[in-house]
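A favour, since you know our structure tokens better than I do. What I am after is a single protein written out in full by you. Could you add the entry underneath, on a fresh line?


***
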Amino acid sequence: MSIGIRAIASFVPPGRESTEEAVFRNGGSKNEARLLDRVHGLKQIPRAAAEEKLEDLLALATQRLLEKVDEPTVDCIFYAHSILAQSPMGYQPLKRALEKNGLGDVPTLGISHLNCASAIGALSLVDAASRRYKNILMLIGDSTGFLPETRHISHSTIMGDAATAVLFDCEPDGLELLSQAIVRDTRFYPGFYQDKEGQKEFGKVYQTRLRESLDAALGKARVNLKDLRWIFPHNVNLTTWRRFCQQSGFPRNRVYLELLADIGHCYCNDAFLNLERALEKKILQPGDLFAVVGVGIGSFFGTAIFRSGENI
């Protein structure tokens, strides 16, 4: 049985914080801010206002999705997020968000231990759940007012707030999921707390592991990198994708980075925010193969391969 994306909708807070503000807020230097802005292409990130809680972001993304779909039905929900602790104990932002949309009684499971690859990792669970459930909602979302120190990874990226809702069904005539793969390198499990030597070594193997995740997913789908029409990436920074294209030969103009300067890296939302924008602009054609990619700190590299159908 195959499964595919029926609809995508998101909510990105309208407020923006500059790269310099985000770096300074977390104790970084002017040189660090300049690196992220001028070299890595990160100009700003969306930042939720004090009155915009995580539950509101998730609820608004879900509401927009349900409004897009005729006679929407949700049988099961997976919630993918990067940050483990998103609210004080017992607050339950997801439950509050779902109740606002009449989905409080739908079976729900959270996925977070792959960090910013969690949304890609969740796809294998979505696929498995399709044997039992016909209409599956994957919610993606992080808002880090609760843990502001997670907004900045030194010399790498800055991260903003966003939420995305993706509805899957078992009759894919839009975007069919062909395969999914996660590559791990457990040497780098400390993540944010990796020492400098470990960070340096992680940088050396980053492109290798990224390509391994792509190759694994491509192999499962029985296609090659040259067959891909698009890559919808995680927006960690521009430098990562320049290097990928230099080393792989993949055309730079087919890595969809249109949103990077506006929203930076929004945890595990990025690839699906990029895909949503591409669908709005109608750049996908029937039969196009494309990849969505996410990389999580702690060394989790995720790729999924999709094929566009007639109804896109």
